User: Fold this.
Amino acid sequence: MKIDVQDSFGKVVESIKLDSKIFNIEVNSSVVRQAVLSELSNLRQGTHSSKNRSAVRGGGKKPWRQKGTGRARAGTSRSPLWRGGGVVFPASTKSAKPKKLNKKMYKSAMRSIFSSLAKENRVFLSDQINIENPKTKDFVDFLKKNELKEGLFIVDEISNNLSLASRNLPNVNVTNLNTLNPINLLKFNSVVIAENCLNLIEEKLS
Assistant:
């Protein structure tokens, strides 16, 4: 499977053959799903917490007698029906346990995602993804020349100019191999890979 390499002006410079073991395999949707769920689970901080009726302080005294008042029975003022009472199904830090995914399954999921993107013609190669000035306008011009409206850009190292020029665009994300994850790959319609990163990706996922 071959793919064209474009320069910063959108012109085809050369064609490169992609590794079929990464960009042309049968997609395993089950493993991809587990990788995404693991990533989403690990994004949770686990600091949220609220109290149920037994954890709320007070409420030991019966608010009023059982019969004769005309009001409904009440045994505690910390019932979820009362103001200041406990929560019926409170959030707990126990529900935010990280889900681990072993390296073999993670690599399999990433290969499946890259293969799916390649088969749908959503993977593009650029000889260099670099911006001379830290201006959003320059990055927008780069997108127009490559006929792109949005996308995920994978580079070896994120320069300061590239970070400043792309951070204000809502549908653009620049990442490197260390921060690359399944969610980012699936989120964008176009994935642009710098040519010098292609071999690194193939080595990492092989």
